[in-house]
Specification:
The complex is a heterodimer of chains A (125) and B (157). Helices cover 38% and strands 10% of the residues of chain A. Chain A has five helices and three strands; from the N terminus they run E-H-E-H-H-E-H-H. In chain A, strand 1, helix 1 and strand 2 form a beta-alpha-beta unit. In chain B, the strands form two sheets. In chain B, strands 3-4-5-6-7 form a five-stranded mixed sheet, covered by helices on one side. In chain B, strands 1-2 form a two-stranded antiparallel sheet. Classes of the chains: A alpha/beta (125), B alpha/beta (157).
Chain lengths: 125, 157
C-alpha cells in the first residue's frame, strides 16, 4: 500500500531532499511540518531581503517557497493577524534565483529542530 | 477564496496546498483559532490525537456553516496505538472526538521503528527518515479500517 502523503519536517534549514525526492518518485505528496523552522526563519537576513523585494514578510516568503516547491503546508498561529498573513501567499511569485537562495540555507541534519523519526520512541501513558 | 491550489493525491483525491495547523494550540484556544482560519479562507485543518484538541477542531468545523465536503480534515494515529486493534479503536475515537462522519486524511503520526523492529509492512523504504504514513480513511467502510491495519501489521518488539 503506497501512502498518499508523507508528513516530514521540512524548511529552509532542513531541506530533507532525500525523502522529498523519494516522495516525488513514488507519487507520495509531501507535507512539511515546522515550515518556518519554529520561527527561526523570521530572523534570517537572506529571507528578509527577499521579502523586501516583494513587500512580503519572511514567513510569507518561506511559505511561498514551500508552495513553489510543491509542498503542502499548514502553518499554525493563534494570532489573528498572522492567521491572515500566512494566507496571503498567492499574489506573488519567487523567481528561480530567489528559490535557489533559500535552498542554499539548508543545514542538513544540523537544521533539524524536531525528533528524528528513525529514533523517536515516545509513547504516551 | 479558491485561490489556494489543490494538490492531487495518488488516490485521486485533492488537498488544499495551504492549510491551518493546530500543533501546540491548547484546547481552550483551538475552536476560536480554527474558526478564524475558516473565516479567512483556509479549507484544510491539520490536527492529531496527540495535540489534545480534536474535539475543538471538530466543533469549529461543524459550527462554521460550511459544508463538510468543503473542509479537508487531517488527524493522526497517536503513538502507542500501532497494533491493528488499537489502531481501529483509536481511529473510531478520533472520529468521535471530531464529531465527524469521516476524516479526509489519517496519518500514522510517528513510525516508531525502534519499538516496532524495522520498516513498516508497506511498500517501499519510504518509512526511513519519514515521520508519518498516510492512509485515507473514511468511517463505515470496511476497506478503510483494513487499510489502517494493513499499514500497521508489524509486530512490536
Amino acid at each position: 500500500m503506497t501512502p498518499a502523503v508523507n508528513q516530514i519536517e521540512l524548511h529552509p534549514y532542513l531541506l530533507n531532499e532525500q525523502v522529498h525526492e523519494y516522495g516525488r518518485e513514488h507519487g507520495i505528496a509531501t507535507e512539511a511540518w515546522s515550515p518556518i523552522a519554529q520561527g527561526e526563519v523570521l530572523d534570517d537576513q537572506a529571507i528578509a531581503g527577499i521579502g523586501e523585494e516583494h513587500g512580503k514578510t519572511p514567513a510569507q516568503v518561506v511559505l511561498r517557497w514551500h508552495v513553489e516547491r510543491g509542498n503542502i503546508v499548514f502553518p499554525k498561529s493563534v494570532t489573528p493577524e498572522r492567521i491572515r498573513e500566512n494566507f496571503k501567499i498567492f499574489d506573488f511569485e519567487l523567481d528561480r534565483e530567489q528559490i535557489e537562495r533559500i535552498d542554499g540555507l539548508d543545514r542538513g541534519e544540523g537544521g533539524r529542530t524536531g525528533p528524528h523519526p528513525d529514533k523517536f520512541d515516545y509513547v504516551p501513558d | 477564496m479558491s485561490e489556494v491550489p489543490q494538490v492531487e493525491l495518488n488516490d485521486g483525491h485533492t488537498i488544499p496546498q495551504l492549510g491551518f495547523g493546530v500543533f501546540q494550540i491548547g484546547p481552550e484556544d483551538t475552536a476560536d483559532a480554527v474558526g478564524q482560519a475558516l473565516e479567512v479562507g483556509y479549507r484544510h485543518i491539520d490536527t492529531a490525537e496527540m495535540y489534545g484538541n480534536e474535539k475543538q477542531v471538530g466543533e469549529a468545523v461543524r459550527n462554521s456553516g460550511l459544508n463538510r465536503a468543503e473542509v479537508f480534515v487531517t488527524s493522526k494515529l497517536n503513538n502507542g496505538f500501532h497494533r491493528p486493534d488499537d489502531a481501529r479503536d483509536a481511529f473510531d475515537a478520533t472520529l468521535g472526538d471530531l464529531g465527524l462522519d469521516y476524516i479526509d486524511l489519517f496519518l500514522i503520526h510517528w513510525p516508531l521503528p525502534t519499538l516496532y523492529g524495522g520498516d513498516f509492512v508497506s511498500p517501499g523504504r519510504c518509512s526511513r527518515n519519514s515521520s508519518a504514513r498516510a492512509v485515507r480513511a473514511r468511517s463505515g467502510s470496511p476497506t478503510s479500517r483494513s487499510s489502517i491495519c494493513s499499514a500497521l501489521t508489524r509486530k512490536p518488539t
